[in-house]
Write a structure and sequence with these properties.
The protein is an alpha/beta fold and 256 residues long. The protein contains eight helices and ten strands. It binds adenosine-5'-triphosphate. Keywords: ATP-binding, Nucleotide-binding.
Length: 256
């Protein structure tokens, strides 16, 4: 059954993430300026922007680490202000900064997250085992995270972010600092979750080579969305031969 929300729209058909007229200042400086973003459900969507574009600030607002000063954020139709628990329960996050306790094992880090989400004990035990197996770390479950490689630690963070079965996964520069092989493995894993489990992913990166032609791509530059659509359409719209060239063409002349 389709349940109309307070605004009368359908939550069943709602986008995974709808951001409208979102602006945010820090210390009087505009960091995000009238941002409108739509992330359809069950897609891998790239938030592409150079360092300082505002990607982390945007994620801080979507995760309610910061409170939005103006504009609206809805997650699967749930307004982040009015229905924050329902909205946030749909969300998993992999932060740019490493966020595991290095002195705890992989398994203990996941137990901590399960407790924060109020997961029943049996379900937590099952999901921790499932996720560690899925990311290929079942045999390392009891090892302290301090001894993990960067790629292994990232895989634990992805397992943790997915533990409570969120429908929308936010990844902030999830491959930064990893070698080519680990980067490729992590992107392939996350893309696989979109295909096989209909997960929605918003993948923030400054690395243009992580974008595939069919990916819905949002170009964020100095706090503004300059373009959004399939990467191949963005390239065609400016008559470029690659996304790299299109990105330069779209952002050049927009420097402060
Ligand atoms: N707490 C803060 N105080 C002052 N300025 C900030 C703060 N947080 C972010 N900024 C500024 O806001 C802008 C956007 O930063 P943000 O971290 O959101 O960008 P980003 O796209 O995630 O880049 P990066 O990948 O380098 O983190 C930058 O100019 C940054 O210096």
């Amino acid at each position: 059954m389709t349940v109309p929300d307070q605004q009368g729209s359908s939550q069943e058909n709602a986008p995974a993430l709808a951001i409208r007229a979102l602006s945010h200042k820090i210390g009087g400086r505009t960091i995000l300026d009238s941002v409108d973003i739509t992330v359809p459900a069950s897609r891998f969507v790239v938030l592409l922007g150079q360092n300082g574009a505002g990607k982390t600030t945007l994620f801080s607002l979507v995760t309610r680490l910061y409170t939005a000063q103006s504009g609206a954020i809805r997650i699967f139709g749930h307004d982040l202000r009015q229905e924050s628990s329902r909205a946030l329960s749909q969300l998993g996050v992999v932060f740019q900064q490493r966020a595991l306790d290095p002195d705890l094992s992989a398994q203990q880090n996941l137990w901590y997250h399960a407790a924060l989400h109020g997961m029943p004990w049996g379900e937590a035990r099952r999901r921790i085992a499932e996720e560690l197996a899925r990311v290929g770390l079942a045999a390392q479950a009891k090892r302290k995270v301090r001894g993990f490689s960067g790629g292994e630690a990232r895989r634990v963070e992805i397992a943790r972010a997915l533990l409570h079965n969120p429908r929308l996964l936010l990844c902030d520069e999830a491959t930064v600092g990893l070698d080519i092989r680990s980067r490729a493995d992590i992107i392939a894993d996350v893309r696989g979750l979109v295909r096989e489990r209909a997960l929605t992913v918003l993948w923030a990166t400054h690395l243009i080579d992580e974008v595939q032609p069919d990916d819905l791509t949002i170009i964020l530059h100095q706090g503004k969305v300059l373009n959004q659509g399939p990467a191949r359409d963005i390239i065609a719209s400016v008559g470029a031969s690659s996304l790299n060239e299109a990105f330069r063409s779209i952002t050049e002349g927009k420097a402060a």
